[in-house]
Amino acid sequence: QITLKESGPTLVEPAQTLTLTCTFSGFSLMTSGVGVGWIRQSPGKAPEWLVFIYWDDDKRYSPSLKSRLTIIKDTSKNQVVLIMTNMDPVDTGTYYCAHRRQYSNNWNAGFLDYWGQGAPVTVSS
Amino acid sequence: DIHMTQSPSTLSASVGDRVIITCRASQSVSNWLAWYQQKPGKAPKLLIYEASSLESGVPSRFSGSGSGTEFTLTISGLQPDDFATYYCQQYNTYPSFGPGTKVDI
């Protein structure tokens, strides 16, 4: 049974750095082909994909946010950490981590079959 | 970037209705298209992948079709649990989601 859970601050000040942790179970990020993604959703808006990280430490970032994002995995803890710099009020929303279904070698792409419950983040002073 | 659109943005329906939601891509995504259902305060739930493959555990009243740039999600016999917002997502390249279709009573 695959589960994921996000954790981190609910309030971040503008210009500060957001760090979110995804703790997962039911799969291993050491297994060939496995990937985890981060997706965010502003209130009342569609989800927006941010990044994928793979078992071999390959990382694929959204081109529009690449300069602000860093993703790290800790396979010993079954965790993936998302770091987003220079936070702005428009970054307010719910941040999800999710398991990427293995389906092809197109590592830029993918769909998500298991999602965490989401971590609400408000950017405000 | 591949831009996704959906129509309608809101759909009013009744239990038992057949509901069709359309998703269009700004360029061909082949059949690399997924559909999700989202309820308020919850994460999206995968319903359909590869345009027409039903995810395990999803009721068979949900079906998907299409390829290239035009896709549909059909709910045959709307149930009370189906009132939600539905999103399409292409994964031919960097993933992008449609703006959503809210199905309400």
List keywords for this structure.
heterodimer, A: 125 residues, mainly beta, 7-stranded mixed beta sheet, 4-stranded antiparallel beta sheet, globular, B: 105 residues
Task: Summarize the SSE layout with pairings.
The complex is a heterodimer of chains A (125) and B (105).
Chain A: E1 3-7, E2 11-12, E3 18-25, E4 35-41, E5 47-54, E6 59-61, E7 69-74, E8 79-84, E9 93-100, E10 112-115, E11 119-123
Parallel strand pairs in A: 2-11
Antiparallel strand pairs in A: 1-3, 3-8, 4-5, 4-9, 5-6, 7-8, 9-10, 9-11
Chain B: E1 4-7, E2 10-12, E3 18-25, E4 33-38, E5 45-49, E6 53-54, E7 62-67, E8 70-76, E9 85-90, E10 96-97, E11 101-104
Parallel strand pairs in B: 2-11
Antiparallel strand pairs in B: 1-3, 3-8, 4-5, 4-9, 5-6, 7-8, 9-10, 9-11
- What's the end-to-end separation of chain B, in Å? 34 Å
Radius of gyration of chain B: 13 Å
Proportion in helices of chain B: under 10%
End-to-end C-alpha gap of chain A: 40 Å
Structural Rg of chain A: 14 Å
Strand content of chain A: over 45%
Please report which band the strand proportion of chain B falls in: under 5%, 5-15%, 15-25%, 25-35%, 35-45% or over 45%: over 45%
Query: Could you give the order of the helices and strands of chain A?
Result: EEEEEEEEEEE
Spans of at least 5 consecutive residues with low confidence of chain A: none
Helix content of chain A: under 10%
Task: Tell me the structural class of chain B.
Answer: mainly beta
Could you give the order of the helices and strands of chain B? EEEEEEEEEEE
Shape estimate of chain B: globular
Helical segment count of chain A: 0
Mean pLDDT of chain B: 97
